[in-house]
Write a structure and sequence with these properties.
mainly alpha, WH_DNA-bd_sf, transcription regulation, Arc Repressor Mutant, subunit A, WH-like_DNA-bd_sf, transcription
Length: 120
Amino acid sequence: MAGARTKTPRPGVPVRGSRTGRPIMALLDLLGRRWTLRVLWELREAPATFRALRERCDDVSPTVLNVRLKELRESGIIELSDDEGYRLTEAGIGLRTALVPLTEWATHAWSRGAAKKSTR
């Protein structure tokens, strides 16, 4: 089952790839889980209901989506509002902002370098 293998990663608690539980390793474990980044991507500009998120995520299974939403809520990155559905918290907005340089690097530096190598 999707959520049975591990608990929600938390700073200070050992996670896959880190016995120390360094905060960055806990975050990378969380973000590396199937569909997590896609859910965050879909919430980057506006809140969404469960149904809307599922549709935007190419009909991800409801079980997997529920597990990811639970993990992101437990991590304080998203929250469920009474009227809008799921949305980024202040921490989630900070994460989105922190990912901007990575997005720019992937778009401008990495993808161009990868394209050059594929034409050789």
